[in-house]
Design brief:
Layout: H1 18-27, H2 29-32, E1 39-43, H3 50-62, E2 67-72, H4 75-90, E3 98-102, E4 115-119, H5 130-139, E5 146-152, E6 158-165, E7 174-179, H6 196-199, H7 207-221, H8 230-241, H9 256-259, E8 263-267, H10 268-271
Parallel strand pairs: 1-2, 1-4, 2-3, 4-5
Antiparallel strand pairs: 5-6, 6-7, 7-8
Helix pairs in contact: 1-3, 7-8
């Protein structure tokens, strides 16, 4: 069967996806712990398997029996990843449960995954194909599973992602903004890392445009708190923003602890495209 999808540019860097990995291992830990030997799929890991290996190590720290499979459409990338894995094992790092395979949106695997991470993949697709890709991936999840799809910058300082349940009845779809606060000039700088479903929607009349304007306004009003550091300014801005937007305030996926990490999560329904 021909893999579904297109080959991405494949560029990546170590620790590029650390922010979304932290979300997966902390905010979504209940999903990883809901099944024995949960399968996690890293879709479209790129020319280097480094971020898949990092995901594996991070997931196994909270779910020791988890298995991780990296999928790529390009057979050459899969061969290179398997060679890298063999070298690590030959050096004494067993990495049990880690594998690489050729595949795309059809998610070829021995069983349905509890979680799929697809980062910097759909950014290279036309916007009109996003809904179809989401539906295809959601259909391949195990019951209670989640799809985490989004975009980040080249070194992982800024990222935005959506978390989607296998079916609407399984839970609420979410959107998360995450930034290294020390390097953030204005919160709306995150607009350039919006997922493909929203990247062209940051225009007047769209919810995401109004949200980013309100977030910038709250950031400006919190400027006096910058004397105590960007984290305190961010916390103050998010607390003010919560009066007008349904910012998640309860752990494990919301609240001050996650805000202190430079995160902010809302229901996807609040920012989804107007049409």
């Amino acid at each position: 069967m021909r893999p579904e999808g297109e080959i991405t540019r494949g560029t990546t860097n170590p620790s590029r996806l650390r922010r979304v990995d932290r979300w997966i291992t902390e905010a979504l830990a209940d999903v990883l712990g809901a099944a024995a030997r949960p399968l996690v799929v890293d879709l479209g890991y790129g020319a280097s398997p480094v971020t898949t290996i990092e995901l594996y190590r991070r997931v196994r720290s909270v779910a020791p029996d988890a298995e991780v499979t990296g999928l790529e459409i390009d057979p050459g990338r899969v061969t290179a990843a398997r060679d890298r894995l063999a070298a690590l094992r030959a050096a004494g790092d067993d990495l049990p449960g880690l594998s690489f395979a050729v595949g795309g949106f059809e998610l070829p695997a021995p069983r349905r995954p509890m979680l799929v991470r697809a980062f910097n993949v759909l950014r290279q697709y036309p916007e009109e194909r996003v809904a179809t890709a989401w539906s295809r991936l959601q259909a391949g999840l195990a019951p209670g599973g989640l799809l985490v799809e989004g975009t980040c910058d080249e070194i992982g300082r800024r990222a935005v992602w959506v978390t989607l349940p296998a079916t609407p009845g399984d839970g609420e779809a979410l959107i998360t903004f995450s930034a290294r606060l020390a390097s953030l000039d204005r919160p709306s700088d995150l607009a350039e890392r919006l997922p493909k479903a929203l990247i062209h929607r940051n225009v007047p009349g769209e919810p995401v445009h109004q949200f980013l304007r309100d977030l910038d306004r709250a950031w400006d009003h919190a400027a006096p708190y910058s004397a105590f550091g960007p984290r305190q300014r961010w916390l103050t801005a998010i607390a003010a923003l919560s009066a007008d937007w349904p910012v998640l305030r309860q752990p494990p996926r919301g609240g001050p602890r996650r805000w202190r990490l430079g995160e902010l999560t809302l229901p996807w329904q609040a920012l989804r495209p107007a049409d």
